[in-house]
Write a structure and sequence with these properties.
The chain is an alpha+beta fold. It has three helices and eight strands, in the order ααββαββββββ.
């Protein structure tokens, strides 16, 4: 019989899987169910923070406009799970076919997710996507691989 901790970790991994599925399907409604209504997101695009699920979905809508077909890959997901809070980190990459028909392998970002168990569901209350920064050039480094 699995422990509650094992059950919770499996549920969080399923939520990450739903993000991957939701992005591939460009399913905003499906993605909406994964985030808390008051999620705070530190995404790769300005501004510094996006507050609320509507702002998070606006980011996904913006990303989807660039792609005919889009995929999202997660590597090296590590989770730490408590009773009602959890966090995880991984590498993530959006790739696919752009609207003009060009295939792109995208770029890897560092991703962090913070989950809270709300009414029995593990929802993302904070996420952050970032790229390493080259201090000398003042630019993000987008060609690294995990």
């Amino acid at each position: 019989m699995p422990t509650q901790h094992e059950v919770d970790e499996a549920e969080i991994r399923q939520q990450i899987g739903k993000i991957v599925e939701g992005i591939r399907a460009k399913d905003l409604e499906g993605l909406k169910r994964i985030y808390a209504t008051d999620v705070v997101s530190f995404d790769v695009e300005p501004p510094l923070q996006h507050v609320g699920v509507a702002a998070k979905l606006k980011n996904w809508t913006s990303a989807f406009t660039f792609f005919q077909d889009v995929t999202y890959e997660v590597r090296d997901l590590a989770l730490t799970v408590g009773d009602d809070m959890a966090f995880g980190h991984c590498f993530g990459r959006l790739s696919g076919t752009l609207q003009n028909g060009t295939a792109t392998s995208g770029m890897w970002v560092r991703a962090t997710f913070c989950f809270r168990k709300i009414d029995g569901d593990w929802l993302i209350v904070h996420d952050q996507a970032s790229v390493p920064f080259d201090i000398a050039s003042g630019k993000g480094v987008t060609d690294l691989e995990p």
